[in-house]
């Protein structure tokens, strides 16, 4: 039997656990393409921290839309993504002109071939494609939507993953702004187009505050959080049942505890324990045996990645709380070199993103909620200590 656990980024799980409400919301805002006057701007944003299932939910959305006969344009909002979208749209307009009977499947391959890289797709991007655009982006979109509607299709769904950018001068932000203004004008003209976007909470919140990205302000937001301990157990049990795998109760509890409710981490511990068990029955011994390997993996590749994406001040806050969980607001202000009254401002994005959670018992005290980010930050401290030992050794020789 193949391992039923699927750790990976964007790897569809064998069982998509507990996203019924979210799928319902996406359907409501995005699949009303046939309706003349939709209630919303037909935009949905999925936010959540690293490894929480955003890409997976987008993939489920794409499949559902395609099942309903809706063409889907899917891209990753990496550098230059607007050129990729633009090029794909122009390509499809040409194709539709030449081949009147192009199937929905072929249309979707053309639309997905950029940005997410479908293996085996025939379409390759020409060099300097950006210079070769025939019309402005908005105009290309209009031509495409018109062609789709004439083919009795209900419209176009655009799916954008990883809408993250680091700072105001990021070129990705410029592309997002250009995309937004083109999209906005399509919506104003009542054209059947919808968008589902995903990204990390902090950049998405920043984008929502940007006055040049107006469609995001009115978008419906779906926030993905960690599963609870009970839910994490249910995820593991459901996956095991679906593949006739036996797991003891104590193994399920140990796996759920280690996962801390992060979907990536649930899959990772499941994967490792399954491999260790040989595939017949997972018991708690197998889980203990892979515990260290699991921690190595998730501290570095999930918590560490999420930490390194934070700003310098945010990192300092996390590091300080990791090292001194009982720090007073006054001491924290001193560490940050700021006034005590400005602390909430510094913390706000971390709290909104669910990376920090207020301790209900002690006013002004916070705990690090992101799974294993505390452990990652403490490692940095130890590295610092090792470095300073090396420094002392090297500089410990007197000048003669
Ligand atoms: N609802 C779910 N039930 C079970 N497993 C899930 C669920 N959602 C996601 N997963 C699993 O969790 C892992 C991470 O999912 P995904 O890549 O979608 O996260 P993400 O939020 O896009 O992460 P990132 O921010 O790093 O891109 C994948 O291995 C996926 O199979
Ligand atoms: Mg993702």
Automatic annotation (TrEMBL):
Molecular function (Gene Ontology), one example: ATP binding
InterPro entries assigned to the protein according to its UniProt record, in alphabetical order: P-loop_NTPase
Keywords: ATP-binding, Nucleotide-binding
Tagged with keyword Secreted: no
Protein name, per record: ATP-binding protein
Entry keyword Kinase: no
UniProt-listed Gene3D superfamilies: P-loop containing nucleotide triphosphate hydrolases (3.40.50.300)
Domain of life: Bacteria
SUPFAM superfamilies the record matches: P-loop containing nucleoside triphosphate hydrolases (SSF52540)
């Amino acid at each position: 039997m193949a391992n039923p656990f699927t750790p990976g980024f964007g790897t569809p799980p064998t069982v998509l656990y507990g996203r019924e409400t979210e799928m319902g919301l996406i359907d409501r805002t995005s699949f009303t393409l046939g309706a003349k006057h939709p209630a919303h701007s037909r935009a949905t944003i999925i936010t959540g921290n690293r490894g929480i299932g955003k890409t997976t939910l987008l993939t489920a959305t794409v499949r559902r839309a395609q099942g309903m006969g809706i063409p889907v344009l899917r891209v990753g909002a990496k550098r230059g993504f607007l050129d990729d979208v633009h090029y794909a749209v122009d390509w499809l307009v040409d194709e539709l002109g030449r081949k009147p009977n192009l199937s929905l499947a072929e249309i979707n391959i053309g639309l997905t071939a950029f940005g997410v890289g479908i293996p085996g797709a025939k379409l390759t991007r020409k060099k300097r494609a950006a210079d070769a655009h025939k019309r402005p982006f908005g105009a290309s979109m209009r031509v495409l939507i018109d062609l789709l509607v004439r083919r009795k299709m209900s419209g176009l769904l655009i799916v954008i993953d990883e809408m993250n950018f680091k700072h105001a001068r990021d070129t990705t932000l410029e592309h997002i702004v250009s995309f937004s203004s083109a999209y906005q004008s399509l919506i104003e003209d009542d054209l059947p187009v919808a968008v589902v976007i995903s990204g990390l909470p902090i950049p998405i919140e920043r984008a929502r505050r940007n006055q040049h990205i107006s469609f995001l302000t009115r978008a419906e937001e779906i926030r993905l959080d960690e599963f609870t301990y009970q839910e994490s157990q249910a995820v593991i049990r459901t996956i095991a049942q679906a593949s006739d795998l036996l797991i003891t109760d104590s193994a399920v509890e140990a796996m759920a505890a280690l996962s801390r409710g992060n979907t990536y981490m649930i899959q990772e511990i499941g994967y490792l324990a399954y491999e260790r068990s040989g595939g017949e029955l997972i018991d708690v011994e197998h889980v203990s045996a892979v515990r260290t390997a699991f921690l190595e993996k998730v501290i570095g590749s999930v918590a560490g990645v999420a930490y390194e994406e934070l700003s310098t001040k945010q990192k300092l806050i996390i590091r300080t709380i990791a090292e001194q969980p009982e720090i007073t607001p006054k001491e924290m202000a001193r560490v940050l070199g700021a006034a005590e009254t400005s602390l909430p401002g510094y913390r706000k994005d971390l709290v909104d993103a669910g990376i920090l959670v207020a301790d209900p018992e002690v006013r002004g005290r916070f705990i690090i909620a992101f799974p294993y980010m505390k452990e990652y930050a403490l490692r940095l401290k130890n590295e610092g200590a090792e470095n300073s030992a090396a420094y002392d050794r090297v500089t410990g020789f007197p000048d003669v």
